[in-house]
Amino acid sequence: MTEQHEERHSAKAPRQIYLDYQATTPTDPRVVEAMAPFFVEHFGNPHSVQHGFGSYALAAVERARAQIAELIGAEPREIVFTSGATESNNLAIKGAARFHKARRPHLVTLTTEHKCVLESCRRMESEGVAVTYLPVRENGLVDMARLAEVVTERTALVSIMAANNEIGVIQPIAEIGALCRERGAYFHTDAAQAAGKIPIDVQAMSIDLLSISGHKLYGPMGVGALYVRRRPRVRLEPLFDGGGQERGLRSGTLPAPLCVGLGKACEIAGEEMAAEATRLTRLREKLREALVSRLPGVRINGDLAQRLPGNLNLSFENVDGGDLIDTMPGLAVSSGSACTSASVEPSYVLRALGLPAELAGASIRVGIGRFTSDDDIDAAIEQVTAAVSRLRSAGPRAAE
Amino acid sequence: MPKMVFIERNGTRKEVEAPLGLSVLEIAHRNNVDIEGACEGSLACSTCHVVVDNDWYAKLPDATEDEEDMLDLAFGLTRTSRLGCQLVITQELDGLTVALPGETRNMLLE
Lengths: 400, 110
Hints:
By secondary structure, chain A is an alpha/beta fold. Chain A is built from twelve helices and 15 strands. Chain B contains four helices and five strands, in the order ββαβααββα.
């Protein structure tokens, strides 16, 4: 950051309060500390097992694999390291669709999934696989009766996220898993937002494939994992050809420091999840109750009960989400809108809940996390209330 | 004596005698069928990979975890892939049909 840039911001605004934990999370200092030795001192290639440098790194990578497995009730051997949840989702969806194309040329997903899931499915359509994009109910949750209608013995894989990245709703994973198991289809869940935030057990929930992202749970960016069930064996066609690392599913040298960081992040998340969930739920409810009582015309998007503790997605009638964010320079939140290169279009997730464009465009996503304090929430309440009131009194589109 | 069929890479069907208690790998070697079997049946490689005919696949005992691990590494793996060294002929498997992986892969899948 340049001095000038810093000055421009500090002169007008207090230090920004970070409330965008669904976009990314800061790397926990304990994670950074665990990773650090593997950049310089223990730099070995974990696949160079003929000398001490390599075997030391390998041991650390395998410890990390066990830490990740522990978080979701898996075996260490079922964890495949990837570059992040986007790659994990690509590998799960394309890998399963391609391997099983001859007998099961069909995929099922939701219209509210992350772009990388939807785009992977679309890619498979171009390879002759049929895809059902199932709409969700008004609260953002899957309609189980409709899901039961579309999953057949021709379906290779059902991909439904554990928790949504925009509205934080938690899907009935165990029910979906049971349905897929009964029909013989793989069940893949994108747990980028859910892992480490809510309890997940791949056995109890009949999950066959599960995606994890490092930087959504206080680990480093650039690393993720895919859980791949071993019993009964889940078969995937790999995306990469190479040295056959990661059970042949993901060739390429493992980034040992990043793997170590992801493992440590999972360990911490597992230990602190219960207490943290209680704390974040309290903070979120404090924020929600204050805004709803102080401001008229506030709508909560997505189911409130089945929801990540640290997520709130709000629409303010007669207020543009982009304007609102511009009016609150002290808060780092995101609009519930997907920014394309040319324009800001209302979020497809919110539109899928049946929100009209103006309400979908009047939304903000508040992400609360590990380093959010009561003071931060108090400040957010003041700033959101003031900004919404100001924009409304100035009239529509006044901030343009 | 039971019989079994190998579909070779050029598509030729080769019907051979399949003595009870012998593995598909051993039967292949006795009959000059081109399956390698580098580890001689000790579950340390996947070079005796065969693609089992769809109808026969369901009749086989399930693969062990060790066999699945080796299959993970097999080239051209299919849904009905097995290791020849782990398929032991019983009376029920009289007529078992397997293809050598490679060019014959699609004949069984489609």
